[in-house]
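call fold(seq) -> tokens
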Amino acid sequence: MSAWVADWLVPDWPAPAGVRACVTTRSGGVSVAPFDSFNLGDHVGDDPAAVAWNRRHLQQALGCRPAWLSQVHSNVAIEAGPGVCAQADASWSDRPGEACAVLTADCLPVLFCDRAGTRVAAAHAGWRGLAGGVLEATLQALAVPAEELLVWLGPAIGPAAFEVGPEVREAFLAQHAVAAEAFAPSHNAGRFMADLYQLARIRLAARGVNAVYGGGLCTFADPRFYSYRRTPHTGRFASLVWLER
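ret:
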């Protein structure tokens, strides 16, 4: 097994040379079904020894230290650092080698960096986190002018697969009327198909962040990724961003 697994993704965005990022897939680890094989989530019922092996391998492969979070669909953004896994849904760092990391299996991972290559951040944004302001909290924590930021939207459940109730649509429209464009009527009466990517872009644009890349990789449709809606008893993949040492 090579250190870097062949189908792990490198985000396609114009980040400065000193900014590194990676999205893992299901490949390259030791977890067994239904978590096969590179599950990085320690809260989903997988063998703790397998998760620990996968996390060690990730750190060795990337040459950075992931700062894991205890994600709770909040709008809390903290400074990434070693030690106890903090309860938050976003982290930022200005220290080389300290990777901001989020785990997902349909929710939207969002990576940030500044154009100068001095600060990075990662946010876990399901619909609750998006509506609750996790992206805005991350921007505030980064403390970088909006025009100096680059953002990449990682793999998430796509608009053809993400059916939600009217309360989800109403939560977004109450804050941004333009969010109506991110919802299409479902074939099930009274329900809607939601576009997490568009919702994220709308909220970022409202804060002046328009250099947004990525989007379009559907975790539900793409078997490379874990998907909670496709298989509720499943693992988690990671999206990470860090400054080179």
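The chain has a mean pLDDT of 96.
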